[in-house]
Each structure stands twice: as C-alpha cells, then as structure tokens.
C-alpha cells in the first residue's frame, strides 16, 4: 500500500521525483541497507557506481544528507518531531528579510551579529546540541543543515524587533557531522508574553539548500525545561521573563500545548552560574 504522503490530491501515486526530500532521504537509507548486505569493497564499488561519473570529485554540502549507522541508531523508537510554525520572525525570506543568503550565516557561535555590526547578545551561556535522525530507521543524517534562531534575554528578535532591526545575532546555520549532530554557542532566550520559552529551527537537506532558499525538510521548535528557565530568569537581565513565565505553561502554550512538548522538550545540564547545555534528538 502506498504511503498517503506520496499520493496526489486524487489519490494517485506521485512520481518518485515529485515526492520530496524526505522520500529521497529514506530511499537513500534503504539503498545503503541493501549495499550493506554485500559488505566491504563490493558495497563501496556498488555505491560508487550509483554516484558521479567523476571519480576525482571531492565531498561538498549536498541537498541529500547521508544516513549513517552509529551506536546510537535505534529504529522503531524515534518519533518524528512535530511540524510547527516558524513564527513571525524567521529571517528566512518567508516574512521579509532573508539572512540566510548573507555571508557569515554558517557559524556555530551565534551570540554576535556579523557583517556591518558586531554587537553581542548578553545572557546566561547556552550550548544547543541537536542530533538529526531519520525517524523511520533511527539512523543519523550527516551533511544535513540546521538553521536555528531565538529571541534575546528580553524577548526581542534580531532583524525585526524595535532596537535590533539592524542586528542579526542569535541566528546561524550548521552542517550535521557524521553523527548527525550540530552544536551552537548562544545565550539562554527570555520568555515573552503568550509563549513558553523556546527555540526555532529549520532542517534542510544541506548547507547549499539552506543558503539558497532550497526546500525545507522540517520546521519545528524546541521547548526549554521549566526548572532551568526559573533558575536563569532569577539572574540579572531576565527580569521581564519572570512574570511572563509565571503566566503560562507548557500545556497552555499555543505550540506545545497539544502534547506538552513531549517530543520537543530539550534535556538540560548545567546551571545558571556556568551556563547550560540543551540537547534534543530530532526525528525527520
């Protein structure tokens, strides 16, 4: 039976080339599984035969991430992360300004603006570590790209909010490594009225897609744990976040409220004095 995602409006199967990037990724995973049965050099030779005719080509960012097997892969117990709104301040060209085509957007430390400004966003240090996996198999997707952005300690978004329209801090793109992981150095976001503390992200097939308005594989959000939020907001610079956090909850949030953010709630380590590390595995 054909997966309903690969059917057109009349219920007819779409041609393979029209099924999108997720279908392409899962097809690649299946092909690599078959090749694995042959083992060793034979599998490598078969895979090479399916690739470019130019044997001297060097690896580069690609619109098709590579599914890799590692000790953390676990098929069958990974749920695809829910699709969510990118919000009104994406900076990806869908609502005005597009920062993704600016030189300098591919970076791991997103605390400072780049280009004409070098202003640095202040706040409690936060390292954000995301691992992208194929939800169907659990295998890590290397060579994919993650565009990540979030608000400042006082709840403002660069490129949009009054006073920071000319800044582009707290935005960046990273390519997933061999374990499907990206890591960003940032600051803990504040809590503004009407929303639970969160971080936005988009997953692309590769860096080339991310910086050239290519297709988006997944748009979603990360929820931050209440205990860490309360500890951070008790420090200087986050005063406005205290009443805003007290006035909402995960179950009331417009994005996370349907399931309490069960698939989007980051695991957190660290403290408000030395900073936190937020980690989440993203199934796509």
Automatic annotation (TrEMBL):
Lineage top rank: taxon: Bacteria
Annotated stretches, region: Disordered: 52-100
Comp. bias (Low complexity): 52-72
SUPFAM superfamilies, A to Z: Aromatic compound dioxygenase
Protein name according to UniProt: 3,4-dioxygenase subunit beta
Pfam entry (one): Dioxygenase_C
Residue ranges occupied by any Intradiol ring-cleavage dioxygenases domain in the UniProt entry: 120-194
CDD domains, sorted: intradiol_dioxygenase_like (cd03457)
GO MF annotation terms: ferric iron binding; oxidoreductase activity, acting on single donors with incorporation of molecular oxygen, incorporation of two atoms of oxygen
Record's keyword terms, sorted: Dioxygenase, Oxidoreductase
């Amino acid at each position: 039976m054909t997966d309903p995602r690969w059917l057109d409006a009349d219920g007819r199967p779409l041609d393979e080339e029209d099924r999108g990037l997720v279908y392409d990724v899962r097809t690649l995973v299946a092909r690599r599984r078959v090749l694995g049965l042959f083992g060793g050099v034979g599998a490598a030779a078969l895979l090479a035969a399916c690739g470019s005719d130019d044997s001297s080509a060097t690896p580069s960012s690609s619109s098709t991430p590579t599914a890799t097997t590692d000790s953390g892969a676990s098929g069958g117990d990974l749920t695809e992360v829910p699709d969510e709104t990118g919000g009104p301040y994406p900076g990806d060209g869908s609502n005005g300004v597009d920062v993704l085509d600016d030189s300098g957007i591919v970076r791991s430390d997103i605390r400072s603006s780049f280009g004409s400004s070098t202003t640095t966003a202040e706040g409690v240090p936060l390292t954000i570590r995301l691992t992208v996996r194929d939800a169907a198999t659990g295998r890590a997707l290397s060579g994919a790209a993650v565009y990540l952005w979030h608000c400042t300690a006082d709840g403002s978004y660069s490129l949009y909010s009054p006073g920071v329209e000319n800044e582009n801090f707290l935005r960046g793109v990273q390519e997933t490594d061999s374990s499907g992981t990206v890591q960003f150095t940032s600051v803990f976001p504040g809590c503004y009225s009407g929303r639970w503390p969160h971080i936005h992200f988009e997953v692309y097939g590769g860096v080339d897609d991310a910086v050239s308005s290519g297709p988006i594989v997944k748009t979603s959000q990360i929820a931050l744990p209440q205990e860490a939020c309360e500890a951070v907001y008790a420090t200087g610079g986050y005063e406005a976040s205290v009443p805003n956090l007290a006035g909402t909850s995960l179950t009331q949030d417009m994005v996370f409220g349907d399931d309490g953010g069960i698939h989007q709630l980051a695991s957190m380590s660290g403290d408000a004095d030395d900073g936190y590390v937020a980690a989440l595995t993203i199934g796509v």
